Amino acid sequence: MKIKAESTKPSNKKTPILCAFVIENSNEPLGLGKIHEKINSSVKESIKEIKGKVGEMSIIQTLGITPANKILIAGLGPKNKLSTDVLRNVTGKIAQKIRSLGLSEFSIVIPIGFPIDLDSSISAVVEGTMLSLYSFDKFKKEKSEKSPDLSILVSNSQNAQKVVLQAQIVAEGTLFARDTSNLPPNECSPSTLASIAKSLSSKNKLKCKIFSKNELKQKKFGGISAVGQGSKNEPKLIILEHNKGRQNDKPVVIVGKAVTFDTGGISLKPGDKMDEMKFDKCGGCTVLGIMKAVSELKLPINVVGIIPSVENMPSGESYRPGDIVRLYSGRTAEILNTDAEGRLILADALSYGIKHYSPKSIIDFATLTGACIVALGNNVAGLVSNDQKLAEKIKSSSEKTSEELWQLPINDDYMDMIKSNVADMKNVGMGRAAGTITAAAFLVNAVDNTPWAHIDIAGTAWTQEATKKKSYNPKGATGYGVRLILDYLRKL
Q: Is 220 a residue of the active site?
């Protein structure tokens, strides 16, 4: 779809449908101006009936008083609760309505004096439109209907068009993460994910390095090798580099767990909803989406994406409960549950990232623990960090992008819960207690004193039973974290 900002006055805009917003309990649609004054009395009465509740929409025939064929008025709810996320969500509802009407183009008015600043409003409108019209139809005979083009009407379009283009790149990064996350396991092995990364690197001028199964063993990635050995689909370590900062600037390293399918291994999961374990690669797919956008935004910083990728399967070659695995850091881990595999591959990737890149900060994304869903539900991710300044910056970006997270504590008591009698640590804590934090405690041993943030996206990576319905999060993978970290990186 094409999206552009233009300075055309709403009263002069020729379009199939002109869309404007209204605050709850206000009869005055924002930005319609003279159009509103010209509307005859019968239509004015219908406008008065619009209450402006969130997502409420009314379509009005213009009766030839304006070049626009129709006017759509959408409610934003009460002014004191208006946010960029409300605007993003309502815009998504508008876009879905326009597509259902079979229209090829629509226009949205963002007037002077709009309650949200112009740049944030434009970004929210672009993201809401693009993300809400997403559909994963790769394996469907009947494809989704073509998305309509969008014109955003603003008073000054020169800088606005730059904001539009940047918002499109961010949204496209999120959609790329969704597309990859939604791939079924028979279409996305670790090797496939590595090929996707290679293709991305060649198109976006990223440096790419892939470690094979044999290289992983030679270089002593004990965690990745152990988890991946039960599957005929060999494990991979994927590394992407964006080097646009100064040569001596330390990079930000972003790590994403990519278990392309997780049966639990020997500690086999229940069959119910096991199909959803194709989403256990969402952390790695988030990293791919971030790296795509970082490159296209041409951010003048150094960023490294690291994706440990495995398939966790039961077989005669699988690692077992009772095994002791030596990780890349040199520390040993006693395996008590083969379904706690994500922390093993993440630990290897984090240690490698710190050893080879000496990053200023390191952030990881992982669908790591069901305990995170028990603690926080399906709409809030868990955050654990050893550096409060880094945590605060990520929380600030979370507030801006409305990808919610909640910080959980980490201290020596939790570290004690993963101590083993026969190894340096064990890969599960003490029963069900603090499961999300003990998983993070395992990772602390890989990062030592490097500023680090761990984001558990088990509840937010795809839409689940208790996921709050938002127009811009259609069924399937959400791409959670792409917009969040891009905001964090752009602030750097």
A: no
